[in-house]
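Q: Predict the assembly, please.
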Amino acid sequence: MKLIDFRKTDITDGFWKKRIDTVSEVSVYNVYKRFKETGRFAALNCTWKPGDPYEPHIFWDSDIAKWIESVAFIIENRPCPDLEKVIDDVADAMEKNADEYGYFNSCYLVHDKPRWSDRTDHELYCAGHLVEAAVAYYIATGKRKLLDMMEKYLDYIYKVFLVDGSAAFKTPGHEEIELALIKLYDLTKNEKYLEMCSFFIDNRGTPNDSEYTGVAHKYSQSHIPVREQKTAEGHCVRACYLYTGMADLARITDDSELFNACKSIFDDIINKKMYITGGIGSAARGEAFTVPYDLPDLTAYSESCAALSLAWFAQRMLLIENDSKYADTIEKVLYNNGLSSVSLDGKSFFYVNPLAIRTHLLERNTSQVNTHENLPITQRKEVFDCSCCPPNITRFIASVADFLYTYDDDTVYVHQYMSSETKTDGFTISQKTDYPNSGRIEISTNNIKNLAVRIPAWCESFCIVANGESADFELEKGYAKISNLEENSIITIDFDVTPFIVYPTSKIKDYISRAAVQRGPVVYCAEGANNDFSVMSFRIDTDTEFSEEYSELYGTYTLTANGRIPVENEQLYSRKKEEMIPAKIKLIPYFAFANNGESDMEVFLHY
Amino acid sequence: MKLIDFRKTDITDGFWKKRIDTVSEVSVYNVYKRFKETGRFAALNCTWKPGDPYEPHIFWDSDIAKWIESVAFIIENRPCPDLEKVIDDVADAMEKNADEYGYFNSCYLVHDKPRWSDRTDHELYCAGHLVEAAVAYYIATGKRKLLDMMEKYLDYIYKVFLVDGSAAFKTPGHEEIELALIKLYDLTKNEKYLEMCSFFIDNRGTPNDSEYTGVAHKYSQSHIPVREQKTAEGHCVRACYLYTGMADLARITDDSELFNACKSIFDDIINKKMYITGGIGSAARGEAFTVPYDLPDLTAYSESCAALSLAWFAQRMLLIENDSKYADTIEKVLYNNGLSSVSLDGKSFFYVNPLAIRTHLLERNTSQVNTHENLPITQRKEVFDCSCCPPNITRFIASVADFLYTYDDDTVYVHQYMSSETKTDGFTISQKTDYPNSGRIEISTNNIKNLAVRIPAWCESFCIVANGESADFELEKGYAKISNLEENSIITIDFDVTPFIVYPTSKIKDYISRAAVQRGPVVYCAEGANNDFSVMSFRIDTDTEFSEEYSELYGTYTLTANGRIPVENEQLYSRKKEEMIPAKIKLIPYFAFANNGESDMEVFLHY
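A: Predicted assembly structure:
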């Protein structure tokens, strides 16, 4: 299967157009501003010295790289000469400061630290992100400076790791370069990059891969060789970047053993370790996957970057296997944890995305001793000390059309629904839709023989009309495949988007007797700010009707549901059940929570 | 009000006789053995030097002291010459090693550390426990050596703290000495000890009380003067030892301001910060009280010593105010968190008493990175590095009759129900009962004018017969007061002990839609070991009938209740409610959990 690159698609209208506009017009500028104010751009000049403010950090180059990539994606459709100038200046600074081997890492250079001495130090991680940035910027502008520089740098890395073996470690402590090498291979077809990717993947977790000991192996997915890994383990972003690179390599080299490891890991995630929002990595300590069904809402870590990395992993899997579970997972991330990461105004970001906020417990955070666990922050910030997420979110949304289609010789697979126009060399396809607000999608095709449209896992009722007639289709792994289309065809799909209740398995201790509300792919939540009672203690009627009201602010509907709330009582424990009185609860999309001040929030309502 | 000292009561039979026997015949011996094996007794010789095993720790003297006190309590009723010999040897060692001022602290002496230099170092805490031990041992045996030694030591402490002010701090970092001074004052009537107690209490939290800064003030209840404290804060055991001393002082000095602070704090605990088991201090970090309604079951800290200290605090409050909430709280501790602290065989102990165990989450503990919070250990141990709890439990149970009665000029208050015979100078009272297994108590009195018997808060139906006739009584703050008894009277009480369901307030996030089961004062739990399904996902029918079966092992009944369990399904989230099938659940007393191997456990069942 092949991907239709987002550059071939124009998102024309609707839900995602608004998000892309906000990212392009607000977010990249605001991230730039805050990165500049916090010394991240200045760091590239490598003039920092002890005593100066804003000491360069080991992952700062990757922050800049992701920002460059975001801009490169945006300028494919809308010129931003001011930002292009910034990037050209970055390239100049890097060129000036890279050493004779092409090595560039602003943190290492100013600290004059022995390079390749510490596996945890993100050198290969930063290099990987810079490679991605260079590739994207070259494609967008044709400018080669960054690309040439990174190719030279990779020659050096090749020598250090694959020829001399002179580094203190064999594989990166923070994976990322693997998938970046594939992007460069896709561009250049230079087999050397494939060889490097294989090297880092194949050595991982083998006796060659000496560094950490004991449990820390799991933290960086180095506990066993990757082909033997069947479960998602350790630091979540590291893990999913690795799995993405593994899936890339499995596809290109037709490595079924590697693919089977990816499949098993993917299933482990979506069947045992994923939040209803598409978030992953429930443990703050280690920012990590934990044991199956350990998905607390209040202390959910669920890092923004982790959800995005899961979407990318799923996307790579879709290129090998047509199974809607991958695109369903991407959809979960898109409309929930992916979007919750950024404020509605596009200026601020969540690093951690909790699934519940209980303000009465927040005082715990203010005391060094009166806490048994810290609760996540409850408001988005414009910049973090560790600001991996903001520029990751901007590049994710700017290239969201990457998730729309894959195709092979005779079939185009439609994975996501967005108003858009796509032109490739061989065919065109466009969508008109108000999805997810409406379940109706009108797809126009030209020169497409077969069309396979994803039936979302959440959807229980749908109909498809092809060229004015009820369509014949075959259901195959979640896709309705309509064969032998006319040269120009119009396919209309209607998914029932009536709000519904979602029940988690009883295996998750936190959600027994609790349920969430969804409308299409959008998960809802209740905020204290919109309800004049404790949303935590609300009990939803599971047979409630929902009333819907369109919100311009959210770009989708808010909902109202029926239920009950307890009458206030003073006893901690009582032989009498609390008296309950009827109440209506206002629900807003989860992605929009915390845009209205600090407030209680619940995704899973008691019933 | 006056207390009837436990030494005047003989527990003759029934539930508590068995516990006292186990403590006397097994626990004190086993604690002795393990303390000896871990160098705690040898430490008193002050011959330890660097390189030797078992380095004396700052609180080891207090471990020994509580063990001595336990033995002193036990030998009131049953001679143990072997243990008395051990104590006499301890007294000899202490006498030999105490310095010219009477100072003794084995840890400080061997480390030659500047004394009174560090408020956190438990010197006054150890001294306090040694004072309690000396008092108890003197009362039991008439031997004065320990008592004389501690009186000399206190003279020195008086000089350092009250005269010279030469210590680096004003009040103890770990409170305890306050209540110990009251015990010594009760014995000696020496006003100096009352003055010392007042000094430590009055200076606490004042500008004089300089040491910690910021939040750590709360940790040791030093954030504001104690009379202004309205809520229970900080390290739980420190807090309740302080509150106990405050209540003692308030009573003796008739200090209503101090008493009102105690009342407000007590209500804060029982209305907002107490587990259904009488456990307190939900936070592992700081072993502390946290914010109201923050009472998680899985990560409950609920230290054994904390529950005991709450019972002692409540007991002191009973000496000022006849309100059954105090004795109800003591009863909660007695039958639940107090007893769960020790294994049924009397050999091993819980430091932390969780209210739920979910074995599938335990793997979290085994990894340094794959955890967001450590779960408590799930099996009792014979000795801990920090072994404050084991000898605290032994002295608590050995003196359990202290909780039975208080009296004033014309009324005896019966707070707890145990088969027992009590003789004081002025009157006698005895109970025949199989409480808590039966709700029937037959009380015989001689020369008691009025009798006030506690109607437990859990009890919804009872009757009282006095001398063969339905009794006239007045209900007053939870006590049924029967006036003008005959010189020799027999009062028979019947409490309905039918098992019932207890509903926590919806303000506790963890227990919404969950309920506990109680029979009399005994809280029940479900263990995985006794049920062939996940007890976590069981839903109890709230109108269930309970069947009862007597267990010799537990000394009380096990219960069986009706409910439903989910049919296994593989989906994390589903539009369909899980299918439920009927099931019966076996419940055992909470105090008996973890006597049957590692197993899941739940106190609060979903409904």
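The mean pLDDT of chain B is 95. Chain B touches chain A through 76 residues (CB under 8 Å).
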